[in-house]
Structures are given as C-alpha cells and as structure tokens.
Write a structure and sequence with these properties.
The structure is a homodimer.
Chain A lengths: L1 E5 L3 E7 L2 E8 L1 H9 L4 E8 L5 H7 L9 E3 L6 E7 L6 E7 L12 H4 L3 E4 L4 H10 L5 E4 L3 H6 L1 H8 L4 E5 H8 L4 H10 L4 E5 L4 E6 L3 E5 L12 H15 L6 H18 L6 H4 L3 H15 L11
Parallel strand pairs in A: 1-4, 1-8, 2-6, 4-5, 8-9, 9-10, 10-11
Antiparallel strand pairs in A: 2-3, 6-7, 11-12, 12-13
Helix pairs in contact in A: 1-9, 4-6, 7-8, 9-10, 10-12
C-alpha cells in the first residue's frame, strides 16, 4: 500500500508566546507526510519554488516519503505563510499569505501516486481536490480537509468534491458553517447523508469526534502542560489518522477509524510541543505507542452499577 | 449520608435560538439538587423571596430534597438573572442580574445540614463559602465552584477558600485565569499543589477533564443533535459528580471520581435539552444509566498493536 497526499509545501514564519521562527518548513502536505510515514509509504504531490532547500527536502523524505511528484517550479517561490498566536494560543492572526507557486498549481500525479490505495486531499481549492480524486480511481479510502475560505467562496465545488470521498476531516465550526447546522452532531448527520462513510470533527485543543453510520467516537486531546506552536496540528492529526487506516488496508470500519483517531491524536500532541516540524521529525515509534496507551488509560472508566433514587 | 449544597435559588429569563422563557426556576443550588438527588438525600441552603412559589418549591423537593434551610426573606425578592444566547449557543450575554435577597445572604445551616458528609459550595462570594466550609467539619468530601468575577475582585479570599476544600470544579478558562497558567494542565498541577485532591476543568460543550495526584481522566460531552438551553449545565454536572461521590461514601479515589465524571456528564446532557429544569425534573434513573453506558461505548477504543515504521 501507499498513501498519496496532495497539498501545500510551505515556509512559515510563526510567532507564539514561546518564541519566534522566521522561516520554518511547513505546509499541510509536509505535516501530513511526517505523521503518515510512520504507517505506510507516503507520496507527496505539491509545488515548491527555487528556494526550497535540500534540508527541507530531507525532512520531507523522512521515513522514505517519496518526493518524485514534488514539482519544482523554475523561477518560482515556495508558498509562504506567517502568523501570530495570542497569549493562550487560542487565537491566531494570519499576517501574510503569499501563494507564490501555489497560485497556478495544477497537481500532476505520476502513475505510482495515482495508483495509491489511500488518498488524502489536504486543504486546497476544491476543484483541484476533485480532479485529483477522479484521477485516483484505485483508491480504497479517500479523505479530505478544507477550510472556511472555500465554504464561503466555492461552496458548490466543495460540496461536489465532498460527495466523492469517504471521509471529511474538518474543524467543528467549519462543519456547522458548511451545513448550517447548529450542532456538530447535526452537521455530521447531514454530511453522512451526502454519502460519506465518516466525518471527523476537529475540536482544536479539546480533541476530535468521529461520526460514522454505525456510531460516534469521541476522543479528548492529549493533555499537555505546555503547547509551543499549534501550527500543523490538524494536518499531523490527519496524517496519523489516515496513515493508520492505510496500515489497515483502507478499512473504514468504525472500530478501525476509532483507533485511527487515537494515533492522529497522539501524533498531533507531539507536533504542538515544538515549532513546526521540529518535534515530529525526531519522533520515535515507541513515543507514539506510549501516548496511545496513555490516551487509552486516561479515557477509560469502568461502569459500576449505582442504585439511583427516584 | 446526605449532601448539603449552598448556593443560589433563582428565577431566570432566558432567550435562545430555540425559544424564550420569561420566568423559569433556576439557580446553581436548584440545578445541583435536581441532579444530586438521584444519588443521595440533598439539603439545600439558600435564600428566596416572597415571590418564590409553591410550584418552584415542589420542583426543588424532587426526590426528597430537604428545604428546611431554604430561607424565605420576608419582603424580599428571589434572585433574578436574565440572559440571551447567541446563534450556536457558544456566546451568552447577561442582560440582568438582580441579586435581591442574595445581596445580604448569610448562610444559616441547621445541625442536620452542618452534619452532612458531603458538601458542595456553589458559586457565591468566597468568604461565605469559607464560612460554610468551616461549619461543616464532619464533611468527608467538599467540592466548590466559583466564577471569573471572584477571581477578579476577591482573589485572596477565593484562594483561601480553595485551600480548605477537596475538589475545585471550574471552567477551564477560569482555572487558567486563576493561576496565570497557559494551559489547563499546568493550572491543574498548580492547584493540586495547593492541597486539592481533585481539580475538574469544565470545557462547556467539549466535556470535562479530571486531574488528581494519581492521573488525568478526560471525558467528552455527550454528543447531542440539539441543544436548547445551556443554563445550569455546569451545576447539573456538579450535582451528578458530587452526588455520585456521596453515594460512594465520599471516596475521592481517581477511579471513583472518573465514574462520577460520567454521571455528571450524562446529567448535564439532559439538562441542556430543554429550558431550565424542565428536562431533569422528569428524568428517570434508567435514562441516566443509558447515557452513562453510551458514553462508555462512545469513548472506548481497543488498543491493537500496529507495526510502526522508522
């Protein structure tokens, strides 16, 4: 098996209460690949500019990630994002978004990437996501992300795209915005009726909830004493989640997806402990397994009958 | 055993996207008592005015709650609060807070209330909480709530009071505000160092997390398709939580408190389904047990080893 991811490769400038990075490797596809590569071979599709350096390429290739479809645009500059996080990291202000080579990006997939069994469409313009999805007819499990921008300016294309995938991974507020529903549960129910097998509501520092036709599975975030930089947490979560599904042959059962949630959550918890890709780049398999075990223990309670009155 | 609760009895006017109630029974002690009375005998300490009607007293006495220490202030008016919730119920605006009989409230406990094994100090001025706490020397388990107002204007009294109880139940943002910590985990660690046995961080629609010296236990909120009125959810949670602990003889072990979290969460989920006390007033023991079982199932995942790469 292999996992193909289409999305951004970027340089980020990030300021948080814990420090500043003027230029660090980022982008949805980067964070996704670093996480998913613990589970399966990852193939990255996305554009970079002349400025994308060897060190960044080395990080991207961690654990054998294939970069044959990373398109180097001659004379172009890599996508650049800069942002600043508020005191408790709950609020984020985007300062700069320079699309650069991303502005005219048209995904080009090699035969090998097109043949992957699992596909993740990171947050890009929905028509591009749809084009890639249609190229990858062999995929047994296709998941996608998006953002409020596309809900606002490309709603129809987004809905068309969502109707072709198996799993939508989106922030809870965006799920509500997309459907007009007042709760995440109601939003997820509507989206399952669109034909999705699974909806994952990302709830930031609070965790995530999985909705399938079978049941609901809710998992809190890993409790952390310090969060240094939340950038890329959602894509790292998606990498752990989709990667785990790939390792299970693309199985989309509620049970497999619930376990996938635990891996996504564990990986995301490491991502936010340091800036950008710094922590996950040197993460070990044992560390991931350790936090999955912790999550298991910290969310378990035994049912003991109690005599209720009245 | 019995549980004594000191706190407000109120009439609320509430407007949410789902409707309006001009005058409904409310108050922290009311919501707490309705929930805790499923587990043990509850004794309510709090003031009401001449306008507090028989119907309200009947509701308060559900499942045998003792109202001997409900002080009727002649010529006084019951505490009144009115508020309006925004579209997705995430934001709440207080329109009116008429303290009325609450303004000069001095808790007067009967011998029976003073002798309770379990005590809950709902959100009132911290010096009053402390006075009650010191009267109840027999209590094996004492929990308390508070609010941002007291953190801002009575910080020292609040800290003094917290240092005398076993368990603090507070919104996550208030825990951070109280300690100046950047995360809930760091806030809880500091508060445990003050001598608390347990800290419960309420996270609104996302759930709650329990911190003890032993471990962390995190439980998502019960997933609801529709939320009609969140008023009283926190006090209903506290009632289920503290009530369960009372039913276990005041045991504050991590395991007992984890189960207590499930009961608090189940009760709170019913509370928000209708206005004010409407839903919990006619709630049954079987319905509570059903949602505790649901929560158990919806948060459980099996650990299955996966071969991680790298």
């Amino acid at each position: 098996m292999s996992v193909t991811v289409v999305g951004s490769l970027a340089y980020d400038a990030v300021s948080t209460p814990f420090g500043y990075r003027e230029r660090m490797l980022g982008g949805a596809a980067t964070h996704f690949a670093l996480a998913a590569s613990f589970f399966d071979e990852v193939r990255v599709v996305g554009p970079v500019g002349d400025d994308f350096d060897d060190e960044s390429m080395d990080v991207l290739q961690t654990r054998g990630t294939v970069t044959d479809d990373v398109e180097r645009v001659a004379g172009g500059k890599t996508f650049f994002w800069s942002g600043e996080y508020g005191d408790n990291l709950n609020s984020r202000e985007t300062i700069t978004t320079d699309l650069n080579v991303f502005e005219h990006f048209e995904p080009k997939l090699s035969d090998a990437s097109r043949a992957s069994d699992v596909l993740f469409l990171a947050n890009i313009q929905p028509d591009l996501q749809l084009a890639v999805r249609e190229e990858c007819r062999a995929a047994r499990f296709v998941a996608m992300d998006s953002m409020d921008l596309w809900i606002n300016i490309a709603r129809e294309a987004l809905e068309r795209t969502i109707r072709t995938v198996d799993c939508l991974i989106l922030n809870d507020e965006e799920l509500e915005m997309l459907t007009g529903a007042a709760t995440t549960v109601a939003a997820a129910q509507e989206l399952l009726a669109w034909g999705l097998k699974a909806v994952v509501a990302k709830q930031g520092k609070y965790g995530a909830t999985l909705f399938t036709d079978e049941d609901v599975f809710a998992l809190p975030a890993y409790p952390l004493e310090q969060v240094v930089d939340p950038t890329g947490a959602g894509d790292t979560f998606a990498g752990g989640f989709v990667g785990y599904v790939a390792a299970q042959g693309g199985d989309a059962s509620h049970e497999t997806l619930s376990r996938a949630m635990a891996y996504g959550t564990a990986l995301a918890s490491y991502n936010v402990e340091e800036f950008g890709t710094e922590r996950v780049t040197r993460l070990t398999a044992d560390e991931i397994a350790g936090r999955v075990s912790d999550l298991h223990r910290m969310t378990a309670f035994t049912e003991a009958p109690v005599a209720l009155r009245g």
